Structures are given as structure tokens and as C-alpha cells.
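A.,

Following up on our hallway conversation. C-alpha cells first:
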């Protein structure tokens, strides 16, 4: 092991300080040049993070008709936009070059709930993201006589249904692209409608449980392997029955 004399260490350390000072000075000058110059009026908007909403959707919600805001009205936008039922987070920053950067994080819609004549997109907490304006058209529809609150779906039944569906689809994700709708009938039974591999009706009985999804998954695999043509599947018994 070679020891470095104290004098050499001090010289090396002495060189580092001026370099750091120069770099800090250059950084400060750069920031001063960028932020110290006159700020241009806001001339355009730049959007990040939008998935299903569009810029006109957001602007219409806060009552703005054009893409170029007035002098200072944009300062209230962050608060107003955050009140949109479909938006989780929003951050707005102004660039001196004359544009606003609007970063939005949307809430994730999990199911479409069909109650009466209305369709509601809801997230995993059953909070309503939209009413009669479904933007995510790939979601499974759950229909039934559920209770619609002011901001979310309420009641034990819809909570249990979505919980069971969520768990089953996590184990059998292929079913999420095959199921079109689940109907909670008024007599207590459940009926499912498939869209793939072909339109089909599935009778589930009066209990929605994981074993039914397991039987459905196996039944579809068997039908495809054996080229069985059917318009309905009855899963209410011990074995699946095809019609």
C-alpha cells in the first residue's frame, strides 16, 4: 500500500475547489439567462399524460373555449382541473418561452356499470368517473339493479361482484377479452355474455364464485380444442352443459 504524502493530497484538493466554483458559476449564469430574461406571454399549451380525455375535454370542463389562455387565468387551472372526476393528479408549469406544460394523470376505469338506462365508468373503489360518456370501450359491463350514490356506486352486492370479478380476472386474464357483460338478475341469478370466440350466453346460477370462472375457462378451452359449436353454456351443475 502506497501512502500519498499530505502535501500532494492538499494540492489535489486545492484544484477541485476552483473547478467546482467554475461549474457552479456557469450553472448560475445559465439559470440567470433562462429565468432572468423577460417572460413571454402564454401562447400555446403542451399536454402530457392524457389517455382517454382530450385537451378540448379538459378545457371545456373548466370553461375555456380556446387553446390560448388569457393573461393570468391559467393560474387557477390546476385547482379547477383537479376537480374533474376522471383526473387523479394535475401539475401545470409555465415555461418562459411562452407555453404551459400541463401534466395529467387520469384515474383508471375498471368496469362499466349499467344501471337503468345509464352507463357509469367506475374505478376499483367504485368511484364514478363518467356517466353516459364511456371513453374506455374495452371494459366489461356489469348490469343490475344497483344503488348509484352521488359520487360512487353503493351497496354490498356491487362491491362483492367487482371484488370477485377482479380476483378471478387476475387468475384468468384471458377471460377479460372474452367476457362482454355480467348481469345480476332480479331473481338472484347471474348471467354472463361472451363476445369471443363467438357470442355466447353463460348461465352461472345464484352464486358468483371463483370455481365458476375456473369452469368457464376450462369449458372454453375444451370447446376450442374439440371444435364444439354452441350458443350457451350452463355452469350451474357439477359439469358444464353446452347447448
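Then the amino acids I'd put at each of the 243 positions:
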Amino acid at each position: 500500500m502506497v501512502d500519498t504524502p499530505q502535501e500532494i493530497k492538499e494540492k489535489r484538493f486545492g484544484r477541485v475547489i476552483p473547478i467546482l466554483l467554475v461549474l457552479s458559476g456557469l450553472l448560475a449564469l445559465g439559470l440567470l439567462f433562462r429565468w432572468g430574461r423577460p417572460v413571454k406571454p402564454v401562447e400555446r399549451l403542451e399536454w402530457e399524460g392524457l389517455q382517454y380525455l382530450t385537451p378540448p375535454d379538459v378545457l371545456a370542463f373548466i370553461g375555456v373555449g380556446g387553446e390560448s389562455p388569457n393573461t393570468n387565468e391559467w393560474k387557477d387551472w390546476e385547482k379547477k382541473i383537479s376537480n374533474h372526476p376522471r383526473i387523479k393528479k394535475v401539475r401545470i408549469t409555465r415555461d418562459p418561452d411562452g407555453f404551459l406544460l400541463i401534466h395529467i394523470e387520469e384515474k383508471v376505469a375498471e368496469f362499466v356499470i349499467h344501471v337503468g338506462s345509464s352507463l357509469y365508468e367506475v374505478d376499483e373503489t367504485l368511484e364514478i368517473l363518467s356517466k353516459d360518456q364511456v371513453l374506455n370501450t374495452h371494459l366489461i359491463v356489469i348490469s343490475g339493479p344497483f344503488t348509484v350514490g352521488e359520487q360512487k356506486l353503493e351497496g354490498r352486492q356491487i362491491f362483492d361482484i367487482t371484488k370477485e370479478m377482479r380476483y378471478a380476472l387476475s387468475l384468468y386474464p384471458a377471460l377479460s377479452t372474452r367476457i362482454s357483460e355480467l348481469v345480476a338478475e332480479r331473481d338472484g341469478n347471474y348471467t354472463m355474455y361472451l363476445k369471443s370466440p363467438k357470442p355466447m350466453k353463460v348461465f352461472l346460477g345464484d352464486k358468483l364464485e371463483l370455481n365458476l370462472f375456473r369452469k368457464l375457462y376450462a369449458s372454453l378451452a375444451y370447446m376450442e380444442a374439440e371444435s364444439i359449436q354452441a350458443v350457451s353454456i350452463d355452469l350451474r351443475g357439477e359439469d358444464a352443459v353446452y347447448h
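Residues 44-106 form a domain with the Ubiquitin-like (UB roll) fold (CATH 3.10.20.310). Curious whether your intuition agrees with the design.

B.
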